[in-house]
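Section 5.1 Outputs to date
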Amino acid sequence: MPKEAGTKLIAENRRSRHDYELSDHVEAGLVLTGTEVKSLRAGHVQLGQAYADVRGGEVWLVGASISEYAQGNARNHVTDRDRKLLLKRSEIDAIAAKVKEKGLTLVPTKLYFKDGRVKIEVALGRGKDRGDKRRAIAERDARRDMERALKSRR
């Protein structure tokens, strides 16, 4: 997601890039309560164990933890509830077909404000095995070493 006017990053699931091969990024809205939005403005969210699930023709965010709002009252939100994602019917159908057919997982990658509204970026991810993770780390280290060598030669 490029840095755009009116866009403020709340949280990023950097671990998802390590654990999954990501493809097909989709932006979705979230159904939230007022205290959840206020807590998000303070940055109190964890996406580490979260995933999205297709149930009954709807997409739900499961496992994302939005902390209780400190100044909330007795009607404060539940921290670990499932939250509905707002997508077009055609997007939901395409995602559901891919998840069901290919054994992919919907992984949240970023949570951000866009023009005052909370948006989440989810991506289709295929889990990496241990060897793939090690190979990716080795490639990244080799790339860094090459960049350092080129920089020192200049």
